[in-house]
Each structure stands twice: as structure tokens, then as C-alpha cells.
């Protein structure tokens, strides 16, 4: 179909065509960036924690004297092991998605010239690796002699495990076993590599660092007390946690159970990503509303033009144009308008993404979102214009003679 007559007709309706083109450009820009944000948030929610979430719970207590922490640990651990259904108990510094654990910037040299980024330190007692379900993929797990008292931040000269993600970041292409790193004057040596272990707040320091974690063996005591990991069958974990709270209340009435920290790990994960789920829902609603408004705009404009051109359409039918020709005319006209709007929308999409990158530290918009947005708006435009175009095609040739 010749395009020149369509462009000539559009020039007679510049304002209406320009407005719908701008609406499509805005829709394209918002659609691409909103879909990118939804995918980005959804990917963040799929982070692998590395622990057996469905079978684990964290129980936290407050209000105890550090001087009596060892006695408290002994009483609580013994009581928790006696709870029916509990298969493992250990004293931990934290779990993924739980309360904040020890965090510090590390260096790969004693002079601190080569920074390695901010990492989480999971200082935990004996039995934690097995209780969590962590998988050591290289090297060895800490032995009994590696669990030494925590004097301050973490035990010094610790033999630790790092995640595969952190090892690849610190020593790309190298065997991490035997490598050393430092936090101020604290020294660590890598003896093993974990397959996965997410941060307490994965994504808070960027998607690439979601698993920059270190497992540090420590002996329960004054600096490692108050948080207890329980393992039980997944179907019983909620009931076991309830019984565990009752057991702690009996053996340690002087402490206060931290309700915010005392949850199953699955519940901790649900709570941590609650904001992301809300944002995904809001963005999805915005996309649907924007597409609906755009479709209504195209439908309204096409209906207006059909009403304005009834005599013109009748004349074309009278001189031999078929219904199919009329239908194709309006579909091609809509296709051109959408195409112009999409081209402008691509530029606007990258401009909008640049603002989001500077404000929220998001990555650059991948180029494949542009053809997705383009195809979506093309299909939407054709569907929106279909009903007015069918009405136009149904205009009889006799309309051309009614005003003569």
C-alpha cells in the first residue's frame, strides 16, 4: 500500500497525530524501564541462600549479661535439643535474610593496598555447617580446633570458608585455598569454599555482591550468644519453633525473646523481600494501566478519524476500493504512528534509564527490552485500531452521494 497518501492525511491532523505519537513514545519508555525493573527485582528475589531454608529457624534472645553468656548458651542449647522434632541446634551470629551480622571491608594484603569490598562474616559455633545444610565444594570444613573464642569482632588468625562468588571476586582464575585476607589487624586464611551463602541483606550492596560472605568458626561465649539455629523437618518447623520459645522461657526466664529475629528462615526470606514484591506489583499495575490508556487513546483517535472521513471512505468504496483496502489503510496508518512513537520512545527509554542509574545504581537497560516494547506496542496498536477500522471498512459506497 502506498504510504504517501497516508502521510498526507496525517499532516492534516498534525496535533492529534502528534499527541498520540507522544503518548506512544512515553508508553514505550515507561514499558521498557518498568519491565526491566520488574525483571531486576524478580531476579534479586531468586537469590540462592545456600541454606536449607524450609527446615531452619532462628531464635534470638536479648537482655542477658555478657559475663553469663556461656552459662546462658549451655542452658538454652540443652533445652532446645530436648524439644521434640529438633534434629540440630547451634549458636550462630546470624542467617541469610535475618538480623545484620558482622560486616567489614576486607583487603587481600596486610598493607591494605588492594581492597576486596564489603563482606558479611557469619561467626558461628560447632555444628552450624551441617545444621544449615551448607555445601563445601573445595577444601575442607573447619575442625574442632578451629572453633576458638571470639574476643571482639571475630577470632583473629581464623581459618575460614568463603563463598565461590567471593573467591571468584577476590582471586579470579586462581585456587582460593590458602589465600589470605585482612580486616584491619585481623588476619584470615581460606581453608574451604562454600557453594552458596547469601548475605543477611542480599542485594543491599549490589546484585554482584549478594554472596560475598565468609563463614568464621567461633566458640560460643560472651561475644557469640543470643542467637540459636534450629533444624527440624520442614513440615514441623513452625510447631518446633513455638515449642522452642516455650522451652527458652522455662530455662532462661531472665531473657527476652526477640520476636523480630525469632522466625523460620522461610519467613525471614518472605519478610525481607516483601518490599520487592510490593514494588513488582506496583510496576506491573503501572504497565497495565499505561497500556490500557494507550490503547484507549489509539481507539479514540481512530474512531474520531473514521467519523470524520465517512464521505471520503464512501468515495473510495464507490471508485473500487474493497473493504480489505480500507481496513489495510487504517492499519497501516496506525502502524506508521506507532513506529514513529516507538522510535522516539527508544531515545526516551535510555534517557529515563540514565536517570534511574544515577539515582538508584541500576545497571544499563539491556537493548533486548526495546524490541520487546516495540512489538508489544505494535500489537496493541493493531488490536486497538481493529474495531474502528472494521467500522470504516463497512461504510457503504452510497455514503459518497448523500451530501450531493
Structure description:
Residues 286-396 form the ABC3 transporter permease C-terminal domain. It is found in: Cell membrane. This is FtsX-like permease family protein. Keywords: Cell membrane, Membrane, Transmembrane, Transmembrane helix. With 404 residues, the protein is α+β, with helices and mostly antiparallel strands. The chain is 48% helix and 17% strand. It has two domains: 4-45 and 275-401, no CATH class; 86-224, no CATH class. The strands form two sheets. Strands 3, 4, 5, 6, 7, 8, 9 and 10 form an eight-stranded mixed beta sheet that branches. Strands 1, 2, 11, 12 and 13 form a five-stranded antiparallel beta sheet that branches. A hairpin with a 7-residue loop joins strand 3 (102-107) and strand 4 (115-124). It starts with a helix and ends in an 11-residue tail after the last helix. The model has no long low-confidence stretch (mean pLDDT 88).
Amino acid at each position: 500500500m502506498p504510504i504517501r497518501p497516508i502521510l498526507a492525511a496525517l499532516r492534516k491532523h498534525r496535533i492529534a497525530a502528534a499527541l498520540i505519537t507522544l503518548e506512544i513514545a512515553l508508553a514505550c519508555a515507561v514499558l521498557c524501564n518498568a519491565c526491566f525493573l520488574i525483571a531486576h527485582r524478580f531476579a534479586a528475589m531468586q537469590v540462592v541462600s545456600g541454606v536449607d531454608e524450609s527446615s531452619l529457624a532462628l531464635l534470638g534472645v536479648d537482655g542477658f549479661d555478657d559475663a553469663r553468656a556461656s552459662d546462658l548458651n549451655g542452658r538454652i542449647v540443652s533445652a532446645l535439643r530436648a524439644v521434640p522434632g529438633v534434629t540440630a541446634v547451634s549458636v550462630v551470629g546470624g542467617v541469610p535474610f535475618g538480623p545484620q551480622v558482622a560486616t567489614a571491608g576486607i583487603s587481600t594484603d596486610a598493607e591494605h593496598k588492594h581492597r576486596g569490598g564489603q563482606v558479611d562474616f557469619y561467626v558461628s559455633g560447632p555444628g552450624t555447617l551441617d545444621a544449615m545444610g551448607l555445601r563445601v565444594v573445595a577444601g575442607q570444613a573447619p575442625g574442632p580446633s578451629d572453633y576458638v573464642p571470639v574476643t571482639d569482632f571475630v577470632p583473629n588468625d581464623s581459618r575460614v570458608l568463603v563463598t565461590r562468588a567471593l573467591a571468584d571476586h577476590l582471586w579470579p582464575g586462581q585456587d582460593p585455598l590458602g589465600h589470605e585476607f585482612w580486616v584491619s589487624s585481623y588476619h584470615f586464611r581460606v581453608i574451604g569454599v562454600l557453594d552458596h551463602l547469601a548475605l543477611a541483606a542480599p542485594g543491599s550492596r549490589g546484585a554482584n555482591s549478594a554472596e560475598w560472605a565468609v563463614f568464621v568458626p567461633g566458640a560460643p561465649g560472651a561475644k557469640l550468644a543470643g542467637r540459636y539455629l534450629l533444624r527440624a523437618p520442614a513440615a514441623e518447623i513452625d510447631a518446633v519453633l513455638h515449642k522452642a520459645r516455650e522451652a527458652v522461657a522455662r530455662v532462661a526466664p531472665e531473657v527476652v525473646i526477640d520476636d523480630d529475629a525469632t522466625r523460620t528462615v522461610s519467613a525471614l526470606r518472605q519478610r525481607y523481600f516483601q518490599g520487592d514484591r510490593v514494588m513488582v506489583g506496583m510496576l506491573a499495575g503501572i504497565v497495565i494501566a499505561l497500556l490500557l490508556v494507550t490503547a484507549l487513546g489509539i481507539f479514540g483517535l481512530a474512531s474520531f478519524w473514521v467519523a470524520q472521513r465517512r464521505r471520503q471512505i464512501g468515495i473510495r468504496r464507490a471508485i473500487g476500493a474493497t473493504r480489505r483496502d480500507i481496513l489495510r489503510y487504517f492499519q497501516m496508518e496506525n502502524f506508521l504512528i506507532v513506529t514513529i512513537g516507538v522510535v522516539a520512545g527508544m531515545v526516551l527509554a535510555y534517557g529515563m534509564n540514565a536517570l534511574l542509574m544515577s539515582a538508584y545504581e541500576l545497571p544499563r537497560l539491556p537493548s533486548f527490552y526495546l524490541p520487546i516494547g516495540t512489538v508489544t506496542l505494535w500489537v496493541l496498536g493493531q488490536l486497538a485500531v481493529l474495531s474502528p477500522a472494521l467500522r470504516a471498512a463497512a461504510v457503504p459506497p452510497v455514503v459518497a452521494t448523500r451530501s450531493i
